[in-house]
Structures are given as structure tokens and as C-alpha cells.
Amino acid sequence: MRHGKKINHLSRTASHRSAMLANMACSLIEHKRIQTTTAKAKALKRFVEPIITKAKAENNDNVERNTHNRRIVFSYLRNKEAVTQLFAEVAEKVADRPGGYTRIIKLGNRLGDNADMALIELVDFNETYDTGAKKKSTRRRKKAADTAPAQPAAAKEETAVEEVAPVAEAAEEVATPEAEVAPEAEVAVEETAATEEPKAEEPSEEADDDTKKDAAE
């Protein structure tokens, strides 16, 4: 049983595993980022970060320590060009970083065997992530976002007041024609009544003429 054994053998012998991790570490130092499976990336992270720490300038303050650390790193990598680039270019970039030199980004599953893929890279060589500039810009944007909504709210209130005033004026204009129509209706009623009254009196005059003729006879 494997109780308490945290190392991942990666289904390889010890010699095969060490050779594979050394080659992957050299590729990471040369290209600054490589794509592999997640299990190998996690194993490489534990393998390469102590080596990068030995290459930092603060651990090579004199010639004796520099030579000693170079020999230790070479015993792991077994590549002179990778060791030279590690102590020159990479050590200068990671000088102010206290550990955590690599980053693992998961890429999903690989077609074919459905293996979980990942990208492992050196943090200081990725220019896309500029954390300091992003923090400053987000703080300024948040302040601008808090003050900006106040002005549209006031503008909306003013437009609402302006819209209510024309509606009230239109209602008054509609109400005044109705008041003017009422007297016209009353005049029309009076005229119809006046025209109807003479018609009612005409039969009475004819009746009086008839009575007069009868009396004359």
C-alpha cells in the first residue's frame, strides 16, 4: 500500500522519471513555457523551483557559493546551456520573487486519450499579467462608476418634470374647448325652440279665420 507516499512516479522507473523531469526543466528554462499533462506539470513544479532558488543572485554572493550552486544545478539538469541561461537571464528576472516561480494553467482534455492537459510557465516572463497596473485601473474605474450614475438620475428627474408640465397644459387646453361648446349647444336649443313655437300657433290662426267666416254667414 502507498500510504504516506506523496511522490507521483508517473508510471516510470526512477531513472526514467529523473531524466524526463530534467529534460522538461531544460525546455521550461529555454522556452519559458511548455505544454504537458497536469500530473507531469505538478511534478515538474516541485522539481524545478528549488533549482531556480539556487540560481538567484542572493544565494551566489561570492565565487565559491556560485560555483557550488552551479555544480548542484548541473547535477540535476545535465545541460550546460540551460545552466548558463538559468543563472543569467532567469535569475535576474526572479530576483525579487520569494518563491512561486511557476504557474500552471489547465487547458482541458486532450483528444485521443482524454488526458488532462496544462500549461506550465515562468511567472515573471509572462507580460500579459500586469497585476499592479490592473489594480490601479480598477480602483479608478470603480470611483468613476460610483459617481457616474448620480448624474443620469438627476437628468431623468428633470426630464420627468418637463414631461409632466406639457401633459398638464394639454389637459387644460382640452378642457377649455368643452367649456366653449356648452354655450353653443344652449344657443342651438333656444333656436330650435323658437322655430317650433310659430308652427304650433299657425293652426290657431286658421281656426280663428274659420270662426269669423261662419259668423259672417
Features:
single chain; 217 residues; mainly alpha; 50s Ribosomal Protein L17, Chain: A; 2 domains; three-stranded antiparallel sheet; 6 helices; 69% helix; extended
Summarize the structure.
With 217 residues, the protein is mainly alpha-helical. The protein contains 6 helices and 3 strands; from the N terminus they run αβαααββαα.
Q: What this model shows, in words?
A:
The structure is a single chain. With 217 residues, this protein is mainly alpha-helical. The chain folds into 2 domains: 116 residues, 50s Ribosomal Protein L17, Chain: A (Alpha-Beta Complex); 79 residues. 69% of the residues lie in helices and 9% in strands. The protein contains 6 helices and 3 strands, in the order H-E-H-H-H-E-E-H-H. The chain has a 3-stranded antiparallel β-sheet. Strand 2 and strand 3 form a beta hairpin. Helix 1 crosses helix 2, helix 1 packs across helix 4 and helix 3 packs across helix 4. The longest helix has 67 residues. The protein is extended. It starts with 13 loop residues before the first helix and ends with a helix.
Low-confidence parts:
197-201
Order of helices and strands: HEHHHEEHH
Helices and strands: which structural class? mainly alpha
Sheet with the most strands, sense and barrel status: 3 strands, antiparallel
Helix count, per DSSP? 6
Q: How many structural domains in the coordinates?
A: 2
What level of helicity do the residues show?
55-70%
CATH class of the largest domain: Alpha Beta
What best-fitting shape do the alpha-carbon axes yield? extended
Mean pLDDT: 78
CATH topology of the largest domain: 50s Ribosomal Protein L17, Chain: A
The CATH homologous superfamily of the largest domain corresponds to Ribosomal protein L17
- Terminal Cα span: 155 Å
Strand order of the largest sheet: 1-3-2
